Amino acid sequence: QGQEKLSCNPKKENGTHVVLCELGNPMKAGARITVDMELSVSGLEDMGDAITFQLQLRSKNSPSPTNASVTVTVPVEAQAEMELRGNSLPDTTVLPTSWEGVEGSRRLEDHGIKVEHVYELHNKGPSTVSGVTLRLAVPHELRGHILLYLLELGTEGGMNCTQHPALNPAQV
Fold first, then answer.
1. Which residues, given as ranges, of the chain have pLDDT below 70?
2. Please, is 111 exposed, middle or buried when counting C-beta atoms within 10 Å of its C-beta (0-12, 13-18, 19+)?
3. Which of 8, 48, 99, 128 is geometrically suited to a Cys-Cys bond with 21, CB 3.0 to 4.6 A?
């Protein structure tokens, strides 16, 4: 009839995590109860798209065939908002109108003005993320002429990077 808070205790049993809740003792024969449970589970980032719980009602009375278990599958959806920030150093570059690169030169200044682009990918949460792929398209040619000479590509923070095929073609 009324609502009561259950006292539940987590423990490990046979290598699995078990939450044991005491429903009441003694319980009258034929009693019907409804239990609503809210569970907070962490570390689900790599669990796939669902998590399965096995629920079982156990009685301390003599063994009964009604101690059957039921499996409940709950969908898991991790949410994280990503933010990409970027800037150029220097932030403004003015190119001379009559400038031309020196063919065959290995000096950086003969290929143009150095501009460094820095991008930061931030996780704004609430979940952690793994396996993120960032594809950054950089226009390096315009009508068959070099627009930007891509010199190097680097990362920080344990990320892997796939090199662009047009990266430093003259080996400057």
1. 1-2, 24-26, 45-46, 60-67
2. middle
3. 8
3-state secondary structure 96-125: CCCCCCCCCCCCHHHCCCCCEEEEEEEEEE
Say how far apart CA 155 and CA 163 lie, in whole Å.
11
Extents of the domains making up the chain: 7-75, 78-171
Q: How much is the pLDDT for 85?
A: 92
3-state secondary structure of 164: coil
Nearest to 134 by CA among 124, 123, 142, 148: 123
Give the DSSP H/E element, type plus range, for residue 87: strand 80-89
Question: CA–CA distance from 92 to each of 84, 116, 122 (Å)?
Answer: 20, 11, 25
Distance, in Å, from the CA atom of 103 to the CA atom of 145, rounded to the nearest integer, reads 13
The CB density around residue 74, as the number of other CB atoms within 10 Å, is 10
pLDDT tens per residue across span 15-51: 788 888 877 666 777 777 787 877 777 777 667 788 8
